[in-house]
Backbone:
């Protein structure tokens, strides 16, 4: 089915929600809108979803019977349809559960028509593409100073280049609020002010996100807050969930640079990620830290399979010492995604100039290594 002949089915007892969807999609050609004016618990015949490219379900996330009805629909659909959930409120546990049952997206009501339009087009476009769908890729440092930010930025650049060729957008999100340096590395102004979006992120919408995002000359979008090294992160999981919901509704691909220290919202971010990479360096302490991080993530987040990227890998042993590739492979059995070459001078020049590595040296080994890792490990 192509985007030009796609059907969106909305189930909602709220006339205002049904009107909002029609208003949002009025200017979009060849999108068929079908609405069902009932509660999700009243639906017994699912045949209305048969030819839908997108199913939108309006539920009350506080009611158990609504959640059970949603689960029943998801089981019946068997992952063959994209599903967006609209709800008045939900807690962090319910948000994680939405992700676990493979809901494509979930939005908090009231919803602005333009926000609903963006999510619908993004989801329908993904459903009708040639399989090159968007995703959320998260990078977690195993320890301090392993180059997680450099890896995340380069991964975002590689993703942007590949996705741009098929008309898809990419955004880099810096969640290291205490010591994040994505903006500094890219010579951009960090514009995200989490204190202005409300205690649960309720003020954040597409327009405010656009104001609070920065755009690199390469075309990459960045969401980053001014670093506050002396202030521990006090942001609630609801704020971070709202931020990432809005970002993923605006962009096809999202790359996340995580902080070193575990925060209250770590689980929800990792649980909502399509792929997780733990970044470490080629040292014995670094490999041990990576193993601990992998074990912790696997124990806390059900169904994830994080992989390890060994940064600054050395392949020259002029003096016969140091770790070798075989040592790394033994230490990271079945979790090694790959290694990235060590070129400090190249990385330093790129950071000082605020440009991608390829702008300093086209075809460099770091970019080649990371491109191979990112695309060969794609789901």
Residues:
């Amino acid at each position: 089915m192509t985007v030009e002949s796609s059907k969106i089915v909305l189930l909602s007892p709220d006339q205002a929600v049904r009107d909002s969807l029609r208003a949002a999609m009025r200017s979009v050609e060849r999108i068929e809108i079908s609405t069902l004016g009932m509660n999700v618990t009243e639906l017994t015949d699912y045949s209305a979803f048969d030819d839908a490219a997108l199913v939108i379900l309006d539920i009350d996330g506080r009611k158990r019977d609504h959640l059970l009805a949603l689960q029943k629909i998801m089981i019946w659909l068997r992952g063959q349809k994209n599903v967006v959930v609209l709800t008045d409120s939900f807690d962090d546990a319910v948000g994680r559960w939405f992700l676990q049952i493979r809901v494509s997206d979930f939005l908090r009501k009231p919803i602005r028509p333009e926000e609903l339009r963006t999510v619908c087009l993004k989801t329908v476009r993904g459903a009708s593409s040639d399989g090159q769908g968007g995703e959320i890729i998260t990078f977690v440092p195993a320890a301090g100073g392993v180059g997680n930010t450099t890896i995340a930025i380069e991964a975002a650049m590689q993703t942007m280049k590949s996705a741009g060729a098929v008309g898809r957008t990419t955004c880099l999100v810096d969640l290291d609020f205490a010591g994040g340096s994505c903006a500094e590395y890219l010579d951009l102004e960090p514009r995200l002010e989490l204190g202005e979006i409300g205690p649960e992120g309720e003020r954040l919408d597409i327009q405010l996100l656009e104001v609070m995002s920065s755009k690199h000359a390469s075309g990459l979008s960045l969401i980053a807050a001014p670093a506050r090294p002396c202030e521990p992160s006090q942001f609630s999981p609801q704020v971070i969930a709202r931020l990432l919901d809005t970002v993923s509704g605006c962009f096809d691909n999202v790359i996340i640079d995580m902080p070193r220290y575990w925060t209250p919202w770590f689980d929800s971010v990792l649980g909502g990620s399509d792929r997780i990479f733990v970044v470490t360096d080629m040292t014995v302490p670094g490999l041990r830290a990576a193993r601990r991080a992998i074990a912790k993530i696997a124990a806390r987040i059900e169904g994830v399979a994080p992989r390890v990227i060994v940064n600054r890998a050395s392949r020259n042993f002029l003096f016969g010492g140091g770790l070798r590739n075989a040592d790394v492979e033994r230490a990271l059995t079945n979790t090694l995604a790959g290694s990235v070459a060590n070129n400090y001078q190249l990385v330093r020049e790129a950071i000082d100039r605020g440009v991608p590595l390829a702008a300093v040296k086209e075809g460099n080994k770091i970019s080649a290594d990371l491109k191979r890792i990112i695309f060969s490990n794609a789901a």
Q: What stands out?
A: Confidence is low (pLDDT under 50) at residues 127-133. The chain is about 40% helix and 20% strand. Residues 46 and 145 are 52 Å apart (CA to CA). The first helix runs from residue 15 to 25.
